[in-house]
Design goal:
This protein is α+β, with helices and mostly antiparallel strands. It has one domain: Class II aldolase/adducin N-terminal domain (L-fuculose-1-phosphate Aldolase). It has helices at residues 21-39, 97-109, 122-128, 139-142, 162-170, 190-212, 222-235, 238-254, and strands at residues 49-53, 60-63, 65-66, 79-82, 94-95, 115-119, 148-151, 175-178, 182-187. The strands form two sheets. Strands 4-2-1-6-9-8-7 form a seven-stranded mixed beta sheet, with helices on both faces. A two-stranded antiparallel sheet has the order 3-5. Helix 2 crosses helix 5 (162-170).
């Protein structure tokens, strides 16, 4: 459906009765994730995006409507799109083309993950532009040691050919630093992806703050890096799973309209 220049969030109608219970639950959780990213100051006006795979469907995922701010996203407003870029839900909003390129790359290349989350935070962009990349200088960064890919900047991601290179650079990692651009995490569920982006963002903030002090940064000893990495890998989604219900309770107190 073609986008309307004057499209407004109030133009979005509830689709709860038109989708499966499993899809609706995913929509609610993904809308919550958008609200949380905004709440924790990781949004970028209309930029960036979060996607989630549609349960029970082989080649479709959900993405935000281009023109709505993260604190306006609702379960019904999320756009269902397939790997060819076909919009499968009625919407008065456009699809973000760069968002489609990045997220279709992840969804096509990593069938083991169900959510991808991309940000343009100040600290994330700063670390993405450092030749050293993310340093093993904090416990927060320890979970990403040897588990983070790097993708060189190619301009705004409108070229679908970039998907192959994004897949290559992500590899089997759950985090990708987009050089001169920002951060991306993948999760085995939505709560897991949010947990990872929160930890990666804090790791970047700590690194920039530490380097700004002008003193030599102490890195974690290699043996401790390895044991820490193994511990976090064993925990898999534990942190995200434990914390997610509390995030939803917080949103329900603040503004439960994400469920609409």
């Amino acid at each position: 459906m073609a986008a309307v220049a004057s499209a407004h969030p109030d133009d979005v109608l509830s689709i709860r009765e038109q989708v499966s219970e499993e899809e609706w639950e995913t929509r609610v959780n993904l809308a919550a994730c958008y609200r949380l990213v905004d709440h924790y100051d990781m949004s970028d006006l209309l930029g960036t995006h979060i996607s989630a795979r549609v349960p029970g469907e082989d080649n479709t995922f959900l993405l935000n409507p281009y023109g709505m701010y993260f604190d306006e996203i609702t379960a019904s407003s999320l756009i269902k799109v397939d790997y060819d870029g076909n919009v499968l839900t009625e919407t008065p909003f456009d699809l973000n083309l760069a968002g489609f390129t990045i997220h279709s790359a992840v969804m096509m290349g990593r069938p083991d993950v169900d959510c991808a989350l991309h940000t343009h935070t100040r600290a994330g962009m700063a670390v993405s532009a450092l030749k050293c990349g993310l340093l093993p200088m904090s416990q927060h960064s320890a979970r990403f040691i040897d588990r983070t890919g790097y993708h060189d900047y190619e301009g705004v991601a409108h070229d679908h050919d970039e998907r192959e290179r994004l897949q290559r650079d992500l590899g089997d990692n759950l985090a990708l630093i987009l050089r001169n651009h920002g951060l991306l995490t993948c999760g085995y569920n939505i709560g897991h992806a949010f947990w990872l982006i929160y930890k990666l963002e804090r790791a970047c903030q700590a690194q920039i703050d530490g380097m700004s002090a002008g003193a030599k940064v102490i890195e974690i000893e290699p043996s401790v890096q390895e044991s820490s990495k193994e511990l976090f890998e064993k925990r898999r989604t534990a942190g995200g799973d434990l914390g997610w219900p509390g995030h939803l309770r917080r949103l329900d107190r603040m503004d439960p309209s994400y469920k609409d």
